[in-house]
């Protein structure tokens, strides 16, 4: 049986002046199950009595050029995380509106060059993975503001086979990664073995 939806009108109540930067970028529900949205100027939530979205936390990010809409992730129902076109990552604490700058630094990157972020991916336990094209993979623990980098290093046997990582998939026991020129990389949790898998190639290399 199909559900029937009715169209209702919801208006904005923005004491800081409605403009394009106040338009919704990402809708979510907070820990109180209230409907909210994130915009460049702050966080809004729906007042069911007045049927209006009211701004409850104000900030001015100014990170998004015209026409750019970031991919936003809800983390542990407490944070929003996103990256900008300029390869910077940020988190927003939903309850307080506090903006966290996620500073990705790597010993591989010198001369003040940025880490080139390819993708931001939520992990199964509520943290974040960030894949990069020049600095391996970062694991971000937002509540504790802790960052761990996993990368390739010539002097370390147990390391990634490449620092260029594009996609990542986390299952219960395995972390799968893809790397241009290397192929598919598999690492099992709690084991130090990394292996690459190339379909049809019996000589796929293992990294101990």
Report Rg: 21 Å
Q: Which percent range fits the helix content?
A: under 10%
Mean pLDDT: 78
**What general form does the structure show?**
elongated
What structural category characterises the helix and strand content? mainly beta
For the record, give the distance between the C-alpha atoms at the N and C termini, rounded to a whole number: 54 Å
Please count the helical segments.
0
In N-to-C order, the SSE pattern is EEEEEEEEEEEEEEEEEE
User: How much of the sequence is in beta strands?
Assistant: 35-45%
Biggest β-sheet: count, sense, barrel?
A: 5 strands, mixed
The largest beta-sheet arranges its strands as 1-5-4-3-2
Regions with little confidence, pLDDT below 50 for 5+ residues:
193-208
Number of strands: 18
What does this structure look like?
This protein is mainly β. The chain has no helices and 18 strands. The protein has a five-stranded mixed beta sheet with strand order 1-5-4-3-2, with no helix packed on it. The chain is elongated, with a radius of gyration of 21 Å.
Descriptive tags:
single chain; about 210 residues; mainly beta; five-stranded mixed β-sheet; five-stranded antiparallel β-sheet; 18 strands; about 40% strand; elongated; disordered C terminus
What's this, in brief?
The chain is an all-beta fold and about 210 residues long. It has strands at about 10-15, 25-30, 35-40, 40-45, 50-60, 75, 80-85, 90-95, 100, 115-120, 130, 135-140, 145-150, 170, 175-180, 185-190, 195, 205. A hairpin with a 2-residue loop joins strand 3 (about 35-40) and strand 4.
């Amino acid at each position: 049986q199909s559900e029937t939806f009715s169209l209702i009108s919801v208006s904005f109540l923005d004491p800081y002046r409605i403009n394009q930067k106040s338009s919704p970028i990402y809708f979510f529900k907070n820990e109180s199950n209230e409907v909210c949205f994130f915009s460049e100027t702050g966080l809004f939530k729906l007042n069911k009595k007045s049927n209006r979205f009211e701004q409850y936390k104000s900030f001015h990010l100014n990170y998004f050029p015209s026409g750019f809409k970031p991919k936003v992730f809800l983390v542990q129902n407490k944070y929003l995380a996103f990256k900008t076109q300029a390869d910077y990552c940020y988190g927003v604490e939903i309850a307080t509106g506090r903006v966290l700058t996620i500073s990705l630094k790597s010993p591989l990157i010198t001369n003040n060059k940025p880490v080139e972020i390819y993708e931001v991916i939520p992990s199964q336990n509520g943290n974040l993975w960030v894949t990069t094209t020049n600095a391996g993979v970062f694991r971000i623990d937002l509540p504790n503001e802790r960052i761990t980098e996993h990368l390739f290093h010539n002097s370390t046997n147990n390391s990634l086979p490449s620092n260029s990582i594009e996609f990542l998939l986390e299952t219960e026991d395995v972390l799968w990664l893809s790397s241009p020129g290397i192929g598919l990389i598999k690492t099992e949790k709690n084991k130090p073995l990394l292996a690459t898998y190339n379909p049809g190639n019996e000589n796929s290399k293992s990294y101990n």
